[in-house]
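A common beginner's mistake is to predict each chain separately and then try to dock the pieces by hand. The better habit, illustrated here, is to supply every component at once so that their relative placement is modeled jointly.
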Amino acid sequence: MAETNGNSGNGAPAGNGSGGKSVLTTLVEGSKEVKDRALKEIETYKKPEKTDLWKSILRVKHDETPRSRALGVLSNVFLHLHPAKINRDAVAYNYTWGMGGISFYIYIVLVFTGALLMFYYHPSKVVAFRDILYLEHDVPFGKLLRNMHRWAAHLMVITVELHMFRVFLTGSYKRPREFNWVVGVILLVLTLLLSFTGYLLPDDQLGFWAVTVGTNMARATPLLGHDGPFGLELGMTPFNDVRFALLGGSIVDSNALLRAYIWHCVAIPIIASAFMVVHFWRIRKDGGISGPAPVMLESEIKERR
Amino acid sequence: MDWHQLWTILATPDNVPITLLLFVIPFYTWYGLRQSLANDRLIEKLEADPALAKTHHRKTQPYRPEWAREVHVWPYLLRIEFLAAIIVTIILFVWSIVLNAPLEEPANPTLTMNPSKAPWYFLGLQEMLVYFDPWMAGVVLPSLIIVGLMVIPYIDENPLGNGYYVYKQRKFAIWTFIFGFIILWVSMIIIGTMIRGPGWMWFWPGQTWDHNRLIFEVNRDLHEILGIRNRWVAFFLGGGATTLYLVGAAIGIHKLITLTPFSKKIYKRMSLLQYVTMQIFLITMLSLPVKMVLRLLFRIKYVWVTPWFNI
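With all components supplied together, the output reads:
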């Protein structure tokens, strides 16, 4: 210590001169101070919800107060389609069957597995079938992925139809929800079309003949198909009618595969998503789900508008 | 009885959804109608006792005056949604692990599959091809199904049954929908999947799908059965028969929608446009079972033959 003093002899050893403290002591004291600060700060991390980071992400407190429960739903982009509160009976499974929500969830599953499948698939006649074989035998979990995409698609058709059945049985399409029923019918058709366009993509016998059968009906379209009523009279041939437009050719071949792929992976999902947005938005705007509403008696019917 | 054939049909991976439908549709029909009947009983009670109707909460769900009318979405709804998502995920995982998606040989335009079937949800439409020409079964009727579904809210003038299960207040609507959805749509899907074999021939469950089977049935047009050769006589006869059906069906449907005093009241609320729209769709819907009977029982192919189209 004395040596250190001597070395820095010229002039006052600024700062640490008084009391004869060395640089090392200062360092030790300084680090103690930092340690105390760190310990103090760590104490606050035990309550992460108090940190600025936490607050910046979640914005509201998540405690047991009604206000927080409401804000938790309203201030979340994924949940804000829900109201903060709903009728206590509206959560009853026997009323809703949950089929609308399940259909939407299955749609999300399908988008997810579908996007993963797109990594392994080329919509080209040369490799499409081989891609499926590759997917089934070499891609990790490829078989599971494809199975899940297919069964989810089938399940979605069933849940959408059951959803429609429930909405009909509860008369939920009645005023003010008339137009949302129309949107729902469009979504049902889009669901079927999504499933159907996906059928051709493995390019196997099953899909090929299903699509051949399906599109052969298009040649019989009245006015617009070359085999349909008044088609010939309007100048329809196999090379300019509505079937040609669907297949991009007069036979189910590479163009048909590419068209099915684009409709299946890009066009219809975008259209369906847009209609879903409208569908959900209108549920909110029409006052949430329709019931269970108090029953109305025949004697209480009001005159028509 | 060919059990193996039956098992082959039921166990085809793509047919599993239909097997699922066989259970799920009857279950939910029962599940919904059970609540309808419960509400029917409640309505009967309230109508008999006007004083009770004023104070009753008018639902079959449990009720206590001190209970809050509304609950928080978080957690009371979100936990249900979360649970539903988990259950669906588990079902999908198990289903996908147990059962492989079908993959046939590579597409081969020179080798026709027999039977060559559409995806199961379109088998109702494919089954309609037996009874109608493709322009009707494949294009016109599907479009009418879609548009017909869309117009339901605009032609149903019955203000009762909005937001609750009920049967007695909506008998006609419920029977019509069940007829269209279950009897026509679902059961034709089931026929198309399980009954129709090679050559789209009718095989009863358990009958072997014999690819060499020949059926010598002669389907004839209506005028041929009556022995009419002249094209123009046949044309007007067919047109007459079709008109007869249209008028007969319209009268029958009118009788049905004005059957009870209540349905008469609803009928009076309808505008002319609503009434005509409803008639058009119901007549068209009814033409399918009528044509099925004509075809399956009387072996009639076309009722009306014209140079442009055949019905």
